[in-house]
Design a protein that fits this description.
Elements lengths: L2 H8 L2 E4 L4 H5 L2 H9 L1 E4 L3 H9 L5 H9 L4 H26 L7 E4 L8 H15 L4 E6 L4 H10 L4 E6 L2 H20 L8 E6 L1 H7 L11 H18 L1 H8 L6 E5 L12 H5 L5 E5 L1 H10 L13 H10 L4 H37 L1
Parallel strand pairs: 1-2, 1-8, 3-4, 4-5, 5-6, 6-7, 7-8
Helix pairs in contact: 4-16, 5-16, 6-16, 7-8, 8-9, 9-11, 11-15
Length: 361
Amino acid sequence: MKATKQLHDLGQSLWLDNITRDLLTSGTLRRYRDEFSVTGLTSNPTIFDLAIRNGNAYDESIRKKTAQDKSGEELFFDLALEDLTQAADLFRPIYDSTAGIDGWVSLEVSPLLAYDTAKTIKEAARLHLQANRPNVFIKIPGTREGVPAIEEATFEGVPVNVTLLFSREQYIAAAEAYMRGIERRIAAGRDPKIHSVASVFISRWDKAVMEKVPANLRNRLGIAIARRTYKAYRDLLKSTRWQKLAAARAVPQRLLWASTGTKDPNAPDVMYVEAFAAPDTIDTIPEKTLLAFADHGQVKGAMPVDGGDAEPVLAEFARAGVEDAKLAEELQREGAESFNKSWNDLMDCLRSKSEQLKKVS
């Protein structure tokens, strides 16, 4: 049995951290679904930028849409949704058979809105309406300004993938925002069954401290943060507050592991995927890592629900001068800045590509 199928049987969903038009038209995404138990995917501006910049699969669509005077963000979201709605349809049988627990794709609001609550709420609602698929998550960053947007979007019935989470505390803030949204729906007599996931980024932790800690601590910080967060997730699901919501037919906001490609060339390429095997979670996995895990990955058991050695390991990092709370804030800020740069690069790419196509049409 493939290791990817073993993860699926353990209760973890594998989602591809990639989408391109070629993946769809070549049948590769369908093959990943059928052969590697891939049950969803995520997208981000960098993925689309590379796909549009490095090929011609989008040229005809860009040509048609620019002829309709579409440009910038409007052009991008049209292109992205052409891909994502196809992918959503591909995963729709999984969505239906799991009652909405699995089979999702994700679309991100403009990263430029990471610190603007009101505009994020408005944009999330607009994109949800434009997607017109039940299994499309709208990604909202878990920044301080994003947290109230998560609550409001949930209350309004928008399924949210909370992105840019780096710590237990940031995860808990996102989870509580989701629960407040559900509690408000119940109080208003609305259906409490609104799906959500909370995406915790991992590999950036180890990259950030790689040259700052002793060799025996390298590539251990991200896993410790994940284990600490998984314990918080499990504790929340056992809490009286959540049990009350579950009794009202609410569904849990699932924990999602993001940034699970190994950054250290000297470390095993499937290190994070093997470490993050955990029931009732999702692992978004880069394509290269997916293929590596399918080839030689192993499922060695589930992540401990009590956090395992997370706290002793984090204490070692503290003694080495790593303040994880401070670093989590820095990583979230740097992540938002990186997404902004990717977004601006994407807008430049679309502008350049549109101009080129006009010249040859």
